[in-house]
Amino acid sequence: MPSSPTREAASMSALIAHLYDAAMDASLWTGTASKIAQSLGSTSAVLKLHGNGGQVRLLECTANLLVPERDQAWADDWHRRDLWVERSLSYGMSRVITDEDLVTPAEQSQSGFYQEWLSYLDIHHMLGAVFPIEQNVVGVCGIHRPREAGAYVDSDRRQASLLLPHLQRALKLGQRFAHLSHQRDAALQALDRFDTGVMLLDGAGRVLHVSVMAQTLMRECHELVVAHGHLSLRTPALRNKLSAYVHAAMETARGRPGSPSSALLITRDGRLPLILEVAPFRPGSGALGGERPAVLLFIRDPEAPIELARLTDLFSLTRTEAAIAAALARGKSVDDIAMDMGIGIGTARTHLKRILAKTGMHRQAQLVGLLARSMATLAS
Question: What pLDDT score was predicted for residue 192?
Fold first, then answer.
């Protein structure tokens, strides 16, 4: 029994809402092609992107358009040589068309696209459109029926015309959200590669993000604690000072007068102290207010180990030279290094001369500065 106009409208509204949900959550694109096909009384549908140079990215399709792995190269070739896409681009962007607009009956009977590819998929009739997504990339929506199901009619075009602008916007939004998500993931991965621990706090000291190095340093330092989601220090005087620094940084992040950054030392038994620096985080703002201001906390360990392999790669040092260079970067004297390594002072000085030559430095102070700058970015 034919569906009523009210039922069709409700189905289309639900599909449009689903498209915008999928734009915000990429996992929801799975199954979208089936929903599109069903809403237009069709047996299959495909969503894909075509770029310059024949690049094709298949976003989503109904299960009956999937091919076995052994035939994938053949399928990829036909996607690149999609006759309907080629003709649609000439016909006009963002216009709902059918196969009857694009090919003649003679082409249907003679074209390899029909005889080989579409015959394999049991497709004969098409309803769809091509539309711009970004520079040099077009989106493609194809909706299909077998020959016996009959051609698409004006009511089908009207339904597709209702869907098309929302599909185009949802795909554009999805691309934008994916780009922003990629930027966020790259930023978080970069933080995890720093040899400095990084924490993001709100104005109440609640922890919003902790880098891998910060987690490591907190496990090793008894003074640093997270209680009920809030960062704190066990010593009351330090705890009060940290609270004051966080408050001042938050005021600066909100655009009010305040200390731009503050630092304090966390003592450790028998070891050099950790250095904590508090700084404001001023996120960008948009029409809807953007993200809330926050506070950045940097935790530095002067005794952080230096990966010897990185020194050998950077300066072509031997393993022994790299060990001596790392010790110099940590502030040790040549005499102490010789004693620690069980070698003579003359031998240590000979290694130092070779290190200076390989790094292009002339004085030990220059060398220490170079090593500190070279190694103080990435954690091992």
Answer: 79
